[in-house]
Every structure is written in structure tokens, then in C-alpha cells.
Amino acid sequence: MSKIFITRKIDDAVIDELRKSFDVEVWDSEDQAVPRDVLLKQAKESHALFTMLSDQIDKELLSDAPHLKVVANMAVGYDNIDVQAAEKAGIIVTNTPDVLTDTTADLAFSLILATARRIPEAAGYIKEGNWTSWSPYLLAGRDVHHKTLGIIGMGKIGQAVAKRAAGFDMNILYHTRSRKTEAEEQFGAQYKSLSDLLEKSDFVLVLAPLTEETRGMIGAEQLRSMKDSAIFINVGRGPVVDEKALIDALKNGEIAGAGLDVFEKEPISKDHPLLSMKNVVAVPHIGSASTETRFIMMKLAADNIKAVLNGEKPLTKVSV
Ligand code: NAP
Question: Which residues contact 28 (CB under 8 A, 6 or more apart)?
């Protein structure tokens, strides 16, 4: 019987379905990632790995996994996997695109609103008993409607955010490797060079994947070129922005604020300088975290494993 190792506690219904046909072992913790030595040992014995974005599936692991046929990542991003090395070893890699698009776009738009309108700060203010009187500029933020949103990485999620932004009468700019004529027609989005987008946007939103090309794409120079009233939002991957440069830009008033779902190193430490800044709204990589969507992602990852182990085509294969 083929063996599947699942690197985190997932929904019992998904595990039970897999158990009907396969030998399934689970790292049974919801909040602790599987230790590296356990993962390596399991990779050696398993035919399939059901992985999270916090698991490093690298050359070391792939070179000592003689039975491994498929790595099914429960995420659309797959920068935690050496896909080239997997392909070389004849191991299929799958991800979970599409099913998380709207949920992640909702979170991205929430971060735009929460940062611009200072929602976490205002919620803390009232809970701490600081509200003694109404005043004209009490916790006044910035408007979102009719402002300019620049989207870096206008893929599925980027376009779903553009749809939301059009409803807020925003002017939409975007930057990708290829033009998205459909988004231009549907939402009036305009294609811009990265430098143009950074200069003209009131909100800059990163939704590009982490690749060798995008790593450090937003550094000191790019942040300096943004408006000093601009808000920077990252829902893509942490290392796309140079975090030290971001901290400096926020401290020096080169930009007005940031809304962050992803970080250079996750989990971010409690005493990280970004967490003590009033103009930063930080959330712990919850882009696709609705119970409905997470369940659908689990199901899709499991279906990909089932297909490969049954000798069929996976539903959502990653290729490089
Ligand atoms: P997608 O449809 O593949 O879109 C990715 C977009 O990024 C594409 O439009 C691509 O452009 C663009 N891109 C790639 N390299 C670029 C570069 N060097 N410069 C500018 N643009 C570039 O993927 P998606 O489903 O929208 O997801 C996008 C990313 O969001 C994922 O890879 C993941 O890292 C992140 N994500 C985060 C969360 C979260 O919880 N925070 C949840 C889901 C996804 P082309 O079309 O021209 O190739």
C-alpha cells in the first residue's frame, strides 16, 4: 500500500478519505511545523508528501526519497519547493491555485482598508478606554475610494483585487511580465513600468510570487520613489521586499504606512521593529485563511495525491 505523509494536522474528513486507499501518517500538530529530521525520515519512506508552505522541500530531501512520486503543496505559491530538482528526480509537484483567489483578494483589500483607515489602532484605542470625546481629526486616516492602486503581479489574485478596487472607484495601475488586456478592458487597469507605478500609486500592492527575479524587487530605491503619503501592502511573499529598507522608509517618513501579511522570516518575532510601528498593520500570513477555502485547498491537495498514486494526471501540476 502506498504511503502518504501529511506534514500538519488537517481536516479529519480529508484524512479519512485518503485512508480508504492509502497508508496515511500525519504530523498531528496544528501550530508546530514538523521537525526537519522527522520530515526527512518520512520523505525516505513515503510515496507522497502533503506539504505546507513552511516545509522546505529541497535537494537534500529530494535526493533521499526513493519512493516519492508527488509533493502536494497546500498553497498556490511553491517557493518552499525546489521544483527543478523534483522534476529531475521524476517527482510531480502540485499546488492549489484558483480555489483561494477570492479569499486572498478579500484579505488584500481588507489590509488596504485597515491600514488606510487605521482600524486596528482605532479598535485598540476604544478597548483601552481612551475615547473621552469626539474630535474632528480623531484617528483620521486616508481615503481609499478614488485613489490610485498599483498592483505588482496582476495574476489571478491581482485581478480579483482589481475587481474589488473598481467597485471603490479606484484608478488601477499594474505591473507584470505580460500585459493583461482583459483586466485593462474590464477594470480600466493601465499597464505601467515598475518605476512609473511606484511613483504614481497611493497604494502599492505586491501580489507577485517569490522567484529569483522578484526577490528583493522592492528595496530602498523603490521605496524612496513612492509618494510619502503612499501605503505599501504585501500579500505576495516576504522576501520580495527588503524588510530592512521597508523599516527605514517607514521610520524616515518616505512612505506613510504598510499592511503586511507576509514577512522575510515567518513567524516574525514578537520584538520585530515592524510590530511596534503604529502605521503598520501586520497579520500572520492569513491570505487564504477562511475555513471554507482552507478545506477546499486540503481537498485539492489530497485529490492531486490520489490522482498521481492511482497513475492518473494530477489536477493542478506545477511546472518550471
Ligand atoms: P498567478 O495567477 O500565477 O499570478 C502571479 C502574477 O505575478 C502573474 O501575473 C505574473 O506575471 C506575475 N509575476 C511573476 N513574476 C513577476 C515579475 N518578475 N514582475 C512582475 N510580475 C511578476 O498567481 P496568484 O494565484 O495570483 O498568486 C500570486 C502569489 O500570491 C502567489 O505566488 C503567492 O506567493 C501569493 N499568495 C499569497 C497568499 C497569502 O496567504 N498571503 C495566498 C495566495 C497567494 P505573468 O502573468 O506575466 O507571468
Answer: 9
